[in-house]
Specification:
mainly alpha; Serine Threonine Protein Phosphatase 5, Tetratricopeptide repeat; two-stranded parallel sheet; 2 strands; elongated
Length: 339
């Protein structure tokens, strides 16, 4: 009877609780964990679930997750379901990701939706996925979190599916991430249309995302032409096409960075465009003192494939005099100088 009376007092008169405990139970910021520990101990000693929770929470605030876990478990088993969130946090601080994921998932089941589960879990089972899908009807933000989980794991088809569900519930960020997922899936036209629609709706992040996608596309464009060119003339033709496309893409990227009010990135990308423009003269191509003999063929090949233009020239030298002559003439036309 005494415990029942005390519990009724706790629920009916929360202002009668000690100050730190009141903050603890109301999700307020507890600035003095030692005071909370002192205030919560009598309640924990009497077996109150609120006491167990706040006593465990005090240990967690004091960076003692191992000591916190037994009291948080007692609180949970007595029906204080919010303790599951803090059990997840405690296990994560102990670097036990498996147990942390278990408790963060239990928290979602108990109605305490969190994104931490999706960040720490290594694998979502079909059973868990079905449950999360069903819970998403009540807590639609779960669809957004599922999209993020699959996107991080490079499962872009699944990510797009859940982002599209999240869009139906009005999550604006899901539109951005759906656009990025489409891009990753190779559907660049629809991706750019999706992201550009965000910009038209007044979301500058849409313009920034477009700018970044176009910049990355330009960065990856071209590969290493000298490795596949059949003749010196074939090399020059293919290289000219790559340079023209890179200049256009970087210029377009800079435009969208400006629309996103990111002047610094706009200027940075314009410098990339200048590198590929025939109008910009006096550009340096080779790092000072670098010669083809200083690097192996394999090293040059990898550098060339990663986008280092000077490596392409040195590879041309290794392919023979005619290729080297054609490459030098090409780079001179595009404004590069040679010492």
């Amino acid at each position: 009877m005494r415990k029942l009376a005390a519990l009724l007092l706790l629920s009916l008169f929360p202002s009668c609780l000690p100050y730190s405990m009141s903050l603890c139970l109301k999700r307020g910021e507890v600035k003095n964990p030692s005071l909370l520990e002192k205030e919560a101990k009598p309640f924990a000693d009497k077996g109150f679930k609120e006491g167990y929770f706040c006593y465990g929470y005090a240990f967690l605030l004091k960076k003692k997750p191992k000591e916190a876990i037994p009291f948080l478990l007692k609180a949970y088993r007595k029906g204080y379901r919010k303790a599951s969130l803090y059990l997840g946090k405690a296990y994560l601080e102990l670097r036990n990701r498996k147990r942390a994921a278990y408790w963060y998932y239990r928290a979602i089941e108990d109605g305490f939706v969190n994104k931490e589960f999706f960040r720490v879990t290594d694998y979502i089972s079909k059973k868990e996925l079905d449950k999360l899908y069903a819970l998403g009807r009540r807590y639609p933000v779960l669809y957004l979190y599922l999209g993020d989980y699959f996107f991080r794991n490079e499962l872009y088809d699944a990510a797009l599916y859940y982002y599209q569900l999240a869009i139906r519930y009005g999550f604006e960020r899901a539109k951005l991430m759906a656009g990025l997922s489409l891009y990753k899936l190779g559907n660049k036209k629809e991706a750019l249309n999706t992201l550009y629609s965000l910009y038209r709706e007044g979301d500058k992040k849409g313009a920034e995302a477009i700018a970044l996608l176009i910049e990355r596309e330009a960065d990856l464009l071209g590969g290493c032409t000298i490795l596949t060119a059949k003749t010196p003339e074939d090399f020059v033709r293919k290289r000219a096409e790559v340079f023209k496309e890179k200049e256009e893409l970087y210029t377009l990227s800079a435009k969208f960075y400006r629309l996103a009010s990111n002047e610094r990135s706009s200027l940075r990308v314009l410098k990339k465009a200048e590198f590929y423009s025939p109008d910009k003269k006096g550009k340096e191509l080779l790092p000072l003192g670098l010669k083809a003999s200083s690097l192996s063929y394999g090293e040059l090949r990898e550098l060339c494939r990663s986008g280092e233009e000077w490596a392409e020239l040195l590879l041309a030298e290794k392919r023979g005099r005619e290729f080297l002559k054609a490459a030098k003439e090409f780079y001179k036309v595009f404004g590069f100088k040679f010492k």
